[in-house]
Amino acid sequence: MSLASASFDVPATDDYAHDWALVDVETSGLVARRDRVLSLAVVTIGPDGRQTAEFSTLLNPGCDPGPVHVHGLTPERLRGAPTFDQVAGRIGAMLQDRVLVAHNAQFDYDFLAHEFARARMWLPVSQRLCTLALNRQVDPPTDDMKLGTLAAHYGVPQQHAHDALDDTRVLAGILRASLRQAARLDLPLPLVSCPPRAESQFTPQPPKTPCAYRNPGRPAPGGPLRQGMKIAITGDTAHARAELVGRAVAAGLNMMASVSRHTSVLVTNDPTSDSTKARRAIAEGVPVIDEHTFLRLLADVRTGTAHEATAAPAVVIAPVAAPATETETDADADADADADAGTETGAGKAQVQVTEPESITAPVPEEPVRPSPSPGASVPAPALTPVPVPRQPGDSVGSVGSVGSLDNPLAGHRVLVLGGVHADAAAARTRVVELGGSAAINLSASVTDVVLLARGETDRRMNRITALELPVHDGHWLSAPASIDRGTAGFRTQEPRVLPRGGVTDLPVPHGGPAPDWYITASWAPQADCEIDVVAFLLDEDEQVTFDEEFIFYGAPESPAGTVRLLTGGPAEQTIAIDVASLPPATRKVVVAAAIDGVATFGTVGAIQIGAAAGNSGAPVARATLDAATTERTMLLAEIYRRGPLWRLRTVGQGYDHGLGALARGYGVDIAD
User: Fold this and answer.
1) By the 8 A CB rule, do 389 and 320 touch?
2) What are phi and psi of 76, to 5 degrees?
3) I need a surface site. Which of 32, 84, 315, 325 has the fewest CB within 10 A?
């Protein structure tokens, strides 16, 4: 099919009418800094919806084409095809002054950026739109957000999956339908700004080998060094810095680029230095030694304690309908981070005042019972088998029940709360979850009901809600525990499990084969006055990063080995992607947090929604709405952590008044260095 004669039929308003460049790439692998583009297609469309150009080509990558069984591009087919630099000029002309559109746009954008950098050219893209992120906002009743699934939902014919040109033509149909739905719901497009990217950013860096030993702390005065100690160096040295670092790493020490309260030793030949590291060492009481002493101690580094290895499950337990869901209690303190103020196990928790309104704390049943599966409860994807963890003393279970049951009258409902002061709106959303429903933060296709609190009728979305004929209720509706008919709203085969604040669920494990990447997506209502940054920390048994590069943020969006990545789907959505199967044994937990740049607080921003999915386009396995914050500027959102051979997700919702720098220092990273 050709789009030249097809009616694109975009919404007529300026908010949805742009010059578009729809792109799809097939690649030799998944890592943009390492793998290459094998084929590419671009279709350009004007603001009036008419196609203006189309181009596709195979590309000779000069390397092994990778998974031929996926893309069907053998070395024989690619032989004789042009190299990327031979077509880069034509591709750049098609992208110039247009919004790049792709399904999982950051993937295509990153690959193009690397290919243009190799060709010594700039990628001429200033904005991109991800149809995956757009559909997460629209939230159609599909079991996942894969290109083929959305094509079937929107009635777009798909002829050759993983063919770049056909996928781009399918993408055009999905974009058309998605824009219609966005306009119908009055949703802002999740456009992402794409500043110019310097070539040096795309130079692959050799990954740092994680230290195999736990940090034993600081040496005794005059005592030896021990494997796992965190060592920093500042100032000029007689030996080359690379030589010192190499010898220390070979001895089993953990070389750090910054100083924190967990640093064991600072090496410097100038104890009066005014460097940031030296000042921090004095403030934290870190022992300081000179280079000569350091070299002498390197000759006799004592044996350390290795990080505990975690074996894969020996057997897969028979499938059950849903992962275990709990609200964490003190019985899990040995496995989970302590999220209470005044403790020493979390990130700087003893240094801040934590605000936790009692009115929105998730309730704990007095006699928790594990409920039986029901049609309204979420179920894992067919390819994944949840392995339940035996209940511990004191464990309590989240609310799951039958659709329309007396215990869970809102099961299957997604409720949008409008109006009210912060505390009242937060309490209403908590009540929705108590009744078995899911609390929405934005208007979407999945919203089934709207609750109006004080002045809720003045919300700008009310005109759209009225036009959509959604049921509108007052606050008293949430006090009636009677069964409520969901009506004609569409059901997913697999509804995500709704977790309360502090709720826990086991991440399903595969029926053989590699474990999936887990995507933890945070989203919020679009903000005009502030920016929110999602970050991640890879922590060891001592709740510390093992080296600085295990702090993932906008300036360093990928861990050295690529196991944890920060992905941006729009100005109101960011994702932490975690390859749990490839995390080193030292990593016991990945903490996902958010920070506000500026003077705004999370009380102003409102609720943050967390979703966990297996794969970037997979169906959410779990979802939570966190709105405990008032004056806080940073917030712990979720944790992915090891529990025996399994990985678990815990929603946190713990806020702090301090900024990102203080949060990072609590985990052993000084972002000022």
Assistant:
1) no
2) -65, -40
3) 315
Query: Residue 35 corresponds to which tokens in the numbers above?
Result: 């793998």
Which residues have a Cβ under 8 Å from the Cβ of 401 and sit 6 or more positions away? 371, 374, 376, 377, 407, 408, 411, 436
Q: What are all long-range contacts of 6-14, with beta carbons under 8 Å and residues at least 24 apart?
A: 6/51, 6/172, 7/49, 8/45, 8/49, 8/50, 8/51, 8/172, 8/176, 9/49, 9/176, 9/180, 10/47, 10/48, 10/49, 10/176, 10/179, 11/179, 11/180, 11/182, 11/183, 13/183
Token pair listed for 331:
């019985």
DSSP 476-528: GGGG--S----TTPPPPSSPPEE--TTEEEEPPEESSSPPPPEEEEEEE---S
Contact partners, residue 617, CB within 8 Å, separation at least 6: 103, 104, 132, 144, 145, 146, 147, 149
The pLDDT tens digits of the residues spanning 167-224 come to 999 999 999 999 999 999 999 999 999 877 544 444 444 456 678 888 999 999 999 9
- Which structural domains are found in the chain, ordered by start? 20-202 (3.30.420.10), 230-298 (3.40.50.10190), 325-666 (2.60.60.30)
Q: What is the pLDDT of residues 110-125, one digit of tens each?
A: 999 999 999 988 899 9
- Cβ(194)–Cβ(109) below 8 Å: yes
N-to-C CA span, the chain? 55
In the predicted structure, residue 279 carries a pLDDT above the cut 70: yes
Rounded Cα distance, 148 and 65, in Å: 23
pLDDT digits (tens, 9 = 90+) for 633-659: 999 999 999 888 789 999 999 999 988
Please state, in angstroms and rounded to a whole number, the distance separating the CA atoms of residues 531 and 526. 9
Q: Which tens digits make up the pLDDT trace of 529-566?
A: 888 999 999 998 889 898 888 999 988 898 888 899 99
- Looking at residue 212, its pLDDT comes to 85
- Note whether 571 and 526 are within 8 A (CB): yes
Using alpha carbons, list the distances in angstroms from residue 104 to 268, 374, 570: 47, 33, 11
Q: Is 220 helix (H, G, I), strand (E, B) or coil?
A: coil
Task: Find the mean pLDDT for residues 12-24.
Answer: 87
210: nearest Cα among 660, 536, 550: 550
Can you tell me the distance from the alpha carbon of 67 to that of 64, in angstroms, rounded to the nearest whole number? 9
Distance CA 166, CA 495 (A): 31
DSSP string for residues in 95-113: HTTSEEEETTHHHHHHHHH
Question: CB neighbours (10 Å) of residue 395?
Answer: 19
* Cβ atoms within 10 Å of 15's Cβ, excluding its own: 14
